[in-house]
Amino acid sequence: MLDNHEIEQLMSKRVVIVLHDVTKDRVVGTYPQLDEKLMLVSSLGTDNLACLITREIRRPPRNLPD
Description:
- The protein has about 70 residues and is α+β, with helices and mostly antiparallel strands.
- The chain has one domain (about 5-60).
- Helices cover about 40% and strands about 10% of the residues.
- The chain has 3 helices and 2 strands; from the N terminus they run αβαβα.
- It has a two-stranded parallel ribbon with strand order 1-2.
- β1, α2 (about 25-30) and β2 (about 40) form a beta-alpha-beta unit.
- The mean pLDDT is about 85.
């Protein structure tokens, strides 16, 4: 479980969350504030993850609602 400080840190940064043996619905159910973060599943494989993460970090930051 993440504490409030860890959640605040995640929310203040541009992150890509890679999920392993857990669904986005379960994560968002526990931490609804992470709903706007990009989440990828590890079952995509390392090559696909690398391509998607590279594409994401080259894109300008999105303006997320407060």
